[in-house]
Amino acid sequence: MYLLGLSLTAVLPGERRVSARWGWAGETVSFFSIFGAMLPAMRSHSTVLTDDETLLLADAEFFRKKAAITTKIRVMLDATYGALQNELAGLSLVVPPGFDPRVHQLVKGEHLEDFPYQYLDCPKHFSGANTFTFRTLVWWGHHVACALLLEGSEIGQYKRQLLGRFHQLAGKDLELSLAPSLWEWKYGEGYTLPITHDRKAQIAAVLAERSFLKVIRCVPLADSRVREGQLAQLACETFRSLSPLVTP
Fold it and tell me: What's the confidence (pLDDT) of residue 23?
């Protein structure tokens, strides 16, 4: 009996590593052995560089610019951490057990749906079934996203507060994620529902079917606040807009 076994290890949703076992029952052949055997047939088309690809590969200035932009984004995210810690100081929040507002994480990667990304989680709480995390994500080629991710023991209260304080949250460029998990970062039709004053009934219907919440605000990379290095102000403004959802 011929068997193929695959395992996927999530690095970031949208970014995965693959390992495989492939062979007759009782025999294991590595994925890399199989891939190596397939390479000659693949070389004739998939590894041929186009003229545009060759120019880009040889463009040293492109890589210098990418490195410089990466450093600037890291500096902006560091400043965002400090600004959010000031926002959190003395703030009373409805949080799951074990929450520590000082916990945070800075992450950089290359393959969120094939695009580079950098993000700050602050505060960051992923523990068992409980999530309370505010993420500031810079997704190259897409947008900046500031999102509050909520799941677990306090979700009932968050949902009640979203509806009970709806008009405090509405009209502030916030959107409710419609995705089946917390890890979708696109927005717009089919992905998110704008939280506007006339959509309370629609939002209530969506909430009734969900075991988690993700409220997100996205801005274009060409937005003046991003270009002028004001990511911290953008993130703090968004967090304040979301506060009616998570304060007592």
Answer: 41
Strands in 13-161 per DSSP E:
15-24, 29-30, 105-112, 115-121, 126-127, 130-139, 143-151
pLDDT in tens, 151-174: 999 999 999 999 999 999 999 999
Quick one: pLDDT at residue 30? 54
210, two tokens: 């969900």
Q: Name the packing angle between helices 60-88 and 231-246 (round to 10°).
A: 40
pTM: 0.82
Q: How many angstroms from the chain centroid is the CA of residue 44? A: 37
Q: Are strands 175-177 and 212-220 parallel, antiparallel or unpaired?
A: antiparallel
Helix residue ranges, H only, 24-59: 31-43, 51-57
The Cα 1–Cα 5 span in angstroms is 13
Own/partner pairs for 156-160, CB < 8 Å, 24+ apart?
157/94, 158/94, 158/213, 158/245, 158/246, 159/207, 159/210, 159/213
Q: Which amino acid is at 55?
A: L
Surface-to-core class of residue 140, CB atoms within 10 Å of its CB (0-12 exposed, 13-18 middle, 19+ buried): middle
**Neighbour-count burial of 179, counting CB atoms closer than 10 A to its CB (0-12 exposed, 13-18 middle, 19+ buried):** middle
Give all domains of the chain, ordered by start, each with its CATH number: 2-48 (no CATH), 63-246 (3.30.930)
**Cα 64 from Cα 243, distance rounded (Å):** 40
User: Can you list the residues of the chain whose pLDDT is less than 70?
Assistant: 1-45
The rounded mean pLDDT for the chain is: 88
pLDDT in tens, 210-219: 999 999 999 9
